[in-house]
Amino acid sequence: MTERIHNFSAGPAILPVPVLEEAQRDMLSLPGVGMSVMEISHRSKTFDEIISHAESSLRDLLTIPENYHVLFLQGGASLQFSMIPMNFLPQEGSADYIITGSWGKKALKEAKRAGIANVAATMADGGFTRVPGSDELQLDPKAAYVHITTNETIEGVEWKKEPDVGEVPLVADASSDILSHPIPVDKYALIYAGAQKNMGPSGVTLVILRDDLLKRIPDGLHTMLDYRTHVDNKSLYNTPNTWGIYIISLVCEWLKDKGGLEAMHRENEAKAQLIYDAIDGTEFYRGHADADSRSIMNVTFRLPSEELEKKFTTEATAQGLDGLKGHRSVGGIRASIYNAFPLTGVEALVAFMKEFEEKNG
Ligand SMILES: *Cc1c(COP(=O)(O)O)cnc(C)c1O
Q1: Nearest CA to 50 among 214, 243, 208?
Q2: What is the pLDDT of residues 101-114, one digit of tens each?
């Protein structure tokens, strides 16, 4: 097979075709270098330019203020679940976690190993269908930080605006909606995101960290688990994922060509709306998330029976619509439509949904 199919995978996920083409073109030899990016030293001038370009592009796209560090780490978003409490949850203090889905639960589990982590709100009872209102938050003004998951990839639940946490540092797992819309970075103390949803290949984790937080880190942590190591060494303490950082820099260029994050946001909204309209227009499909918490990246919905859901994904796959099976923990259908996912693919899905309903409704 040489034709590309419609890839609705939640992650690792679709990358922009122009990025893949450029990477392919330069695979054997980066222009002027004579070697591929995977074969050069992470301490070479060429790689220094690549990582600097990735950082400055992210700073431009997300308007990251000067007093924030931009790090490219490894271990996935999952290692951040541990590093954050190890670095910022003091023995005599506590942290607040707002749980809007499966990833937040995992983050909480690791925080509990490091110290006292309180649940400031959990939407588990309703099956994680929405984000909490401000009146539902039990925030401790003395908490070391408040942790949220900006977009719950599995349930398809997304914050549209950050919760008001007062002076307490806000920490966010933005793995599946980073770069999908502009964010007010200055409202956060730390933002982290695995690259493989919306930014690049797996194996790189972006961390955006406000400088004053470094003062809170206790001494005695393992070198690799201490954020100061990576700040002091500009993400080059050990060998980073050089290929992954290179692809991120290409994805950033592609985003700039598309007009930046505001333009990207408009496109993402329009794509998601097409599917949500198809869901809302019938009783046959049932959206998982409440309308005001719906994700523009991961659209989750159910059919009248599990049998029909199985039939739906099987027939969709046969038509080149791949990766629509919902996560095993919630079932149903999940269409992940990240930045690189084309409008034509969304239109193909909507057409398939109508056709499937006509035959089976
Ligand atoms: C995928 C994902 C993770 C896990 O990322 P890894 O890089 O596999 O550790 C964590 N949080 C969210 C929101 C995700 O979507």
Answers
A1: 243
A2: 999 999 999 999 99
Determine the 3-state secondary structure of 286 from DSSP: strand
pLDDT digits (tens, 9 = 90+) for 198-231: 999 999 999 999 999 999 999 999 999 999 999 9
N residues, the chain = 361
Provide the strand spans (E) within 79-156.
94-99, 116-122, 146-149, 151-152
Residue 197 annotated among the catalytic residues of the structure? yes
Distance CA 234, CA 184 (A): 23
Other beta carbons less than 10 A from residue 306's beta carbon: 11
How confident is the model at residue 329, as a pLDDT? 84
**Sole residue written with tokens 């994805």:** 251
From the candidates 96, 103, 254, 271, which is the catalytic residue?
103
Compute, in angstroms, the gap from residue 212 CA to the centroid of ligand 1: 26
Q: Which atom of ligand 1 is nearest to the CA of 154?
A: 15
Low-confidence ranges of the chain (pLDDT < 50): none
Residue type, 348: A
Residues linked to residue 230 through DSSP beta bridges, in sequence order: none
Looking only at the bridges linking them, the beta strands covering 170-173 and 190-194 are: parallel
The set of protein residues with a Cβ atom below 6 angstroms from ligand 1 is 11, 76-78, 103, 149, 153, 173, 175-176, 194, 197
Return d(Cα 149, Cα 344) in angstroms, integer: 29
Within 10 angstroms of residue 325's Cβ, the number of other Cβ atoms is 20
Burial string for 255-264 (b: 16+ CB within 10 Å, else e) reads beeeebbeeb
